[in-house]
Amino acid sequence: MTTADGTPVQSTTHPTAEEAQAIAQRGLDRGAMVTLFGRCTVDYEGRAASTLGPGDRHVMLKPDGSALVHTDEGQQPVNWQPPGCDHEVFLDEGHVVVRSERPAPEEELTVTFEEVTHAASFDVTDPTDLSLTGTEEDLRQRILDDPDLVEPEFTPLSTERNTPAGAVDIYGEDADGRTVVVELKRRRVGPDAVGQVDRYVGALERDLHDDAAIRGILVAPSITDRARELLAEKGMEFVALEPTAE
Amino acid sequence: MTTADGTPVQSTTHPTAEEAQAIAQRGLDRGAMVTLFGRCTVDYEGRAASTLGPGDRHVMLKPDGSALVHTDEGQQPVNWQPPGCDHEVFLDEGHVVVRSERPAPEEELTVTFEEVTHAASFDVTDPTDLSLTGTEEDLRQRILDDPDLVEPEFTPLSTERNTPAGAVDIYGEDADGRTVVVELKRRRVGPDAVGQVDRYVGALERDLHDDAAIRGILVAPSITDRARELLAEKGMEFVALEPTAE
DNA sequence: CAATGTATTTCGGAG
DNA sequence: CTCCGAAGTACATTG
């Protein structure tokens, strides 16, 4: 989606109130991201209530109905509105006013600009299409094509090998000939995945009566802190890998 | 603080990589907020690890060292860096690259732009503080100002009194001189809060060797059915009270 | 729909 | 400094 003239981004510095309102409202109508910067006051009324006196702030309005007000400090927005709100940008006595509200729970955020020094709108091509292309099967293929991605000299022996605890994603050997169980996850893993690998390892150790401990490796794009700790406790490993190559 | 020509905001659409890098780096040097928008990939490595394939994103760099990467969805940034990082914007084989890192814990965020469609810097002055009402502290003040809101002749003796189970919100006496433990919640409470009061009451009874049973009162705007049952079972009470007077 | 648990939680305050 | 708990927590998962 783009503007009438095909430009996916519009930007003006020191616009008049009318220009700023027009850019913002047209951007919202188009489903674009809208940003406004300038001296403003902020009022919130809803689950709690807050007011913010005049100051320079950066306001971002997203097409999914979220709103963010940022100052020059802190990772958190100083005020915000969750997704699902209705954004409205209008003029009130010559001032640009942003109002963002949602019905349940009743919440309303109002930003009143003394002056807008910058207004812009950005058309975003949804990246979810791009990131959802990687399935666990893609990840499996990727590793079978290049086992070194797990670790040097890793050798897959079979996929979907059965154990009393279920089927192992990839079953193989490391450089020293030790049995390796690889569990694949297409996205960030938590403690549940650690338990899963652990059950496979335990089941195989009982099944094979193997003297050497079986190695468990969890392959996923990322891992939670807690899961990483658990994994370390159980002497297992994590390998960061995306389901698809860039 | 402003730019050389006195303009507190600089903005360009469809800049060359060199122009984008120059605006960003000069903005950072000046202590300004910097935003970049365009098609990019994002890599994070630190407490966790993640990568994002190509997509349109909005990158905000703050002078306090925080970095935020937003897509068009969600209130939360899709990637970020906490305050205290060093931001760097440089060119690599014609691409604008943002690198934001901090030493402890070792964390690094890298945004590599295929194309920057918008670059801007904003000089911010924000003198005012946010005032927030409707918090648990407001509820505490409200009761200390008018203890009868809990019940007639209730007398607060101390706040944050320590017990082996943690600090009690308000510790006091009722009309008959019996010890009362008041637990405050700024919003609707569930069974967890009942367990909390119960632990305080138990801990205090053991601590004080009190003959008379200690009373436990849960003060909140409302309570779930299940929590009300539990509270009744344990012989404790609920008082409905908003954190702020209407 | 509500209830539950995690988070690169963030943020503040107490010790 | 760390630990601990609240948050307008946000967010995903599950029943």
From TrEMBL, chains A, B:
Alphabetical keyword list: Cytoplasm, DNA-binding, Endonuclease, Hydrolase, Nuclease
GO CC: one term?
cytoplasm
The record ties this protein, via InterPro entries, to: Endonuclease_NucS, NucS_C, NucS_N, NucS_N_sf, tRNA_endonuc-like_dom_sf
What residue stretches are annotated with the Endonuclease NucS C-terminal domain? Answer: 136-244
Compartment(s) of residence: Cytoplasm
The principal localisation class reads cytoplasm
**Pfam families attached to this UniProt entry:** NucS_C, NucS_N
Q: Name one GO molecular function term.
A: DNA binding
Q: Which residues form the Endonuclease NucS N-terminal PH-like domain?
A: 33-126
Q: What is its EC number?
A: 3.1.-.-
Tell me the protein family, please.
Belongs to the NucS endonuclease family.
Q: So what does this one do? A: Cleaves both 3' and 5' ssDNA extremities of branched DNA structures.
Q: What is this protein's record name?
A: Endonuclease NucS
Which species does the entry assign this protein to?
Halomicrobium zhouii
Gene that encodes it: nucS
